[in-house]
C-alpha cells in the first residue's frame, strides 16, 4: 500500500484541535479506510466483502496508488481520522492504467485536456464532525494540493443516497438542465450504465426547494462552478445514484486556499 507523500506534505492547515494533511504511512491509510467503512457500510448500507466486514475497513485497488487527504482530531487517542478524501492525479492514474470514475463514465475527453487533472473520491466525514470547519479544512487541503501540483481540472463521482429514480427525478433533472458540462469536455455515463437525467422539464425542477434538497457535497461542487456529466449511474453496491462532477480549479484555489486564513475562521473548530 502506498505511503503518501514521499517528498511533500501540506503546509500547516488547522482549526482548533483539527488539522488537515496527507497520510504518511499505511497505518494512517487504514484509519481512513475504517472511517469509510463506518460511513459507507455501517451508516449508508453499502455492501462489503467478508474480509472488509472482519477488518471493519473499506478498500479497493485504487487505495494503493492514491494520495489520502485526512482531517485528524489531535484530541483523540488512537485512530483520530475524522474526515478523508482520496486523490488521484492524472499522471498517477495514467501510469496505473485506469481511474475509478472510468468504471461508470467515459472520461476520454478528460484525458485530452491541457494541464494536470485530479480525480476526487471516497469523500466522507464522521457524523460528529460534519461542521463548517471540517469541510473547509478538507477543501483548504485540496486547494493546497491543487496549487502545489498545478492542477487545472478536478473530476469524480458524487452520490445521492438510494437508487429510486422517481424520488430523485427533480434533483437529477435540475442538474441536467442547469449544470451540464460543456461539450468540449463532457463526461458521459457508459452506455450500459447510462441513466437519463432529463426526467422533467426545466421549469418543474428549478425551484429553491429542489436546490436545497441536493446532497451537501454536490451543492459544494456547484458553488465552485462545478459541472455535471451526461447521465447518472446506479450503484447498488453502495446503494447510491451517482453523477459525475467536473470543477475548474481556479475557484477552489481562490476560495479555499489563497483567500481563507485561520484568522478569518477564528482558528477554532465548530
What's the topology here?
Elements: E1 13-15, E2 18-22, H1 26-43, H2 50-55, E3 67-73, E4 81-89, H3 90-96, E5 105-106, E6 116-125, H4 132-148, E7 151-161, H5 165-179, E8 188-189, H6 208-212, H7 216-223, E9 227-228, E10 233-235, E11 240-248, H8 250-258, H9 262-265
Parallel strand pairs: 6-7
Antiparallel strand pairs: 1-2, 2-3, 3-4, 4-6, 5-8, 7-11, 9-11, 10-11
Write up what this structure looks like.
The chain has 270 residues and is α+β, with helices and mostly antiparallel strands. It has one domain: Aminopeptidase. The protein is built from 9 helices and 11 strands. It has helices spanning 26-43, 50-55, 90-96, 132-148, 165-179, 208-212, 216-223, 250-258, 262-265; strands at residues 13-15, 18-22, 67-73, 81-89, 105-106, 116-125, 151-161, 188-189, 227-228, 233-235, 240-248. The chain is globular, with a radius of gyration of 18 Å.
Features:
Aminopeptidase; globular; 9 helices; alpha+beta; 270 residues; 11 strands; single chain; two-stranded antiparallel sheet; nine-stranded mixed β-sheet
What is this structure, in a nutshell?
The protein is α+β, with helices and mostly antiparallel strands and 270 residues long. The protein has a single domain, classed as Aminopeptidase (3-Layer(aba) Sandwich), CATH 3.40.630. The chain has helices spanning 26-43, 50-55, 90-96, 132-148, 165-179, 208-212, 216-223, 250-258, 262-265; strands at residues 13-15, 18-22, 67-73, 81-89, 105-106, 116-125, 151-161, 188-189, 227-228, 233-235, 240-248.
Amino acid at each position: 500500500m502506498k505511503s503518501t507523500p514521499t517528498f511533500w506534505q501540506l503546509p500547516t492547515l488547522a482549526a482548533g484541535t483539527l488539522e488537515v494533511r496527507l497520510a504518511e504511512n499505511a497505518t494512517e491509510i487504514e484509519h481512513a479506510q475504517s472511517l469509510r467503512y463506518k460511513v459507507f457500510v455501517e451508516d449508508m448500507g453499502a455492501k462489503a466483502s467478508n474480509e472488509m466486514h472482519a477488518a471493519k475497513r473499506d478498500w479497493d485497488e485504487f487505495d494503493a496508488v492514491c494520495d489520502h487527504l485526512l482531517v485528524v482530531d489531535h484530541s483523540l487517542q488512537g485512530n483520530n481520522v475524522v474526515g478523508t478524501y482520496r486523490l488521484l492525479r492524472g499522471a498517477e492514474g495514467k501510469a496505473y492504467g485506469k481511474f475509478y470514475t472510468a468504471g461508470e463514465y467515459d472520461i476520454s475527453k478528460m484525458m485530452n485536456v491541457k494541464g494536470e487533472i485530479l480525480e476526487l473520491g471516497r469523500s466522507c466525514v464522521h457524523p460528529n464532525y460534519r461542521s463548517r470547519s471540517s469541510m473547509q479544512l478538507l477543501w483548504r487541503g485540496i486547494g493546497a494540493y491543487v496549487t502545489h501540483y498545478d492542477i487545472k481540472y478536478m473530476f469524480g463521482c458524487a452520490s445521492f443516497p438510494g437508487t429510486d429514480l422517481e424520488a430523485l427525478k427533480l434533483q437529477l433533472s435540475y442538474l441536467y438542465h442547469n449544470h451540464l458540462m460543456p461539450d468540449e469536455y463532457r463526461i458521459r455515463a457508459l452506455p450500459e450504465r447510462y441513466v437519463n437525467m432529463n426526467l422533467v422539464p426545466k421549469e418543474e425542477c428549478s425551484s429553491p426547494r429542489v436546490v436545497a434538497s441536493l446532497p451537501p457535497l454536490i451543492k459544494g461542487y456547484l458553488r465552485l462552478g462545478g459541472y455535471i456529466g451526461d447521465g447518472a449511474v446506479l450503484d447498488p453496491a453502495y446503494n447510491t445514484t451517482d453523477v459525475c462532477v467536473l470543477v475548474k480549479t481556479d475557484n477552489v484555489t481562490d476560495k479555499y486556499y489563497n483567500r481563507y486564513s485561520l484568522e478569518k475562521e477564528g482558528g477554532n473548530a465548530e
